[in-house]
Design a protein that fits this description.
By secondary structure, this protein is mostly helical. The protein has 7 helices and no strands. The longest helix is centred in the N-terminal third of the chain and has 40 residues.
Length: 183
């Protein structure tokens, strides 16, 4: 039994809102934990504790990226199937594509930038208390920065216009396939 379009629309909009709240909560909590760990690491003069925020930052980056991609996927679905190009999601996408916004959106890049700043700060502070030598520090720094950079890329890509277009095109292909199968 098909779900009424209005019910589906409301449900998907609610999921987008929930994703937004989840992103805000994870971001706030992860920054708070990271700052607390930095403060504790400084008070203990411990390089290991100063590097501990990487254990928070990396999972948070990838989790937020997944939430933003879910939002992108839902918005594209709404645009294609429920709005048929004439609703809010469709018009918002076209505004972004035509670069008609009064200012550039910085939501995902600002979150990614904050995590990158935390990571670099942790490395710089850890260096102050590092006792094992330059080569070992550089090896650890590289091992820690690679997943951070991958997470930053994933996060910024998850909310990009390219990702939006890919989802819109995929949903449009599915709609066409369904129409052909139903005819």
């Amino acid at each position: 039994m098909p779900v009424p379009a209005e019910t589906e629309y409301e449900s998907l909009r609610a999921e987008i809102n929930q994703n937004s709240q989840t992103v805000a909560g994870v971001f706030t909590a992860s920054v708070a934990v990271s700052v607390s760990l930095v403060g504790y690491g400084l008070s203990r003069e411990s390089a290991g504790v100063l590097l501990a925020p990487f254990g928070v930052v990396v999972p948070a980056l990838f989790f937020i990226a997944s939430q933003l991609e879910s939002t992108t996927r839902i918005a594209a679905y709404l645009s294609v199937f429920l709005e048929e190009g004439e609703g809010w999601e469709s018009r918002w996408r076209r505004l972004r594509e035509k670069r008609m916004l009064p200012r550039q959106r910085v939501y995902a890049p600002s979150i990614a930038g904050m995590y990158l700043l935390i990571a670099l700060l942790c490395l710089a502070l850890a260096w102050l208390y590092w006792r094992a030598g330059v080569v070992s520090f550089l090896a650890v720094a590289l091992l820690l920065l690679v997943p951070v950079v991958a997470g930053v890329v994933s996060l910024t890509e998850s909310f990009s216009m390219r990702m939006v277009r890919e989802y819109v095109e995929a949903w449009e292909r599915l709609r066409e396939d369904e129409r052909k199968e139903g005819a």
